[in-house]
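Example 3.
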Amino acid sequence: MVEKDVHQGLGVGRRSRRPDERDIVFARMAYTPGGAAFEDYYLRHPELRAVDDALRALPGLCADGSRSFHPLNARIAPAVFALLASWRPLVAGGAGGGERGGERGGAHGGPPADGADALGFSRIEVSDDETRRALTARVKGLARYFGALDVGVTLLTPDFVYSHAGRHEEDYGREISLDHTHAIVFTVEMDFRFMKAAPGLPVVTESSRRYLEAAKVALALAANVRALGWSARAHIDGSYLAVLPPLAARAGLGEIGRLGILVTEHRGPCVRLGLVTTDLPLVPDEPRPFGLQDFCRICLKCARNCPSQAISREPVAPKEGWRISWERCYGFWRRQGTDCGMCLISCPYSKPDTPFHRFVRECIRRSDAARRVAVWGDDLFYGRRPFERWEPDWWT
Ligand code: SF4
Ligand code: SF4
């Protein structure tokens, strides 16, 4: 009962079954027409075939023919994502990990690959609460040291672990079994100067930079947890085994907003998320709701500014969480050639973390009248449609 209240207070939907990676729109787009994954998926989901075929016919992110295409700048994000793909074999520590490996590898039944043994260290035993607290503080400090903005810990429960792999045709349909007990979730900050270019090409360039940043932090952190003698897996772009936003909300990093992703109290949704799962028995954080659900009820600014009308205008988050049409959203991305970001820059919580904005957020947390004034003030000073524009760097 308590858990249900916590979930709804954070905008996190309740799930009756584990999420299936094969169902996410990015995975569906990766299936080659006529291939085994394609045939299997649309045999089981004929209702999605027409809408997915229409999406596949659109140009694509950074593609020639998309609205924001630039012959030089459109190469940056694909180059970064290709680099990230080459990092996937490292997620479980290299040796024995395999491209998607690690969910069963490492210390489960033996010492972790590239762990304390391999480095000549003994395992750090965790037998009392004081050691747990000290190691938790240390792990969080390390995450920040490597580049995280904020970091939290939560228990890893199966409801947010994918049931089956789907992003890559070679392991399509493989059952996922991740028996780690804890999730270390962190944010990395996006550069608002680039986000102001929404819905232009610099947004996907900035996204790729932050996926790279999150992957670097996750890989370094997982290596350090393994150096303590415990199993750890980094979850990086194209290699996630769990759904990150609800884990981040439960780890105290924010709440799920109307726009369907994590909104943090001090940077809004202008962050990317990273994850390391482990069996190191860390101390979980408590969720930290800051009044976002009440604010989203009256704000609607992301929904108003969404060019594809993908964001629901429902008065409150339904039991299953805020409703987004990912197909509409992704269709706009493909036409535009970039990952849009209009909802991110429209969100009043994306405003700079100044003393004035901190004061406003504190008022929003406490009073319905303050929430209404804040929406009005945000429209007045920042525009019902965001009007601050991107000033290109000389090299772009
Ligand atoms: S990214 Fe753009 S298209 Fe997608 S939900 Fe946000 S505003 Fe709408
Ligand atoms: S723009 Fe408004 S409604 Fe949308 S997520 Fe942000 S606070 Fe909520």
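The chain has one domain: 1-396. Residues 1-6, 95-110 have pLDDT under 50 and may be disordered.
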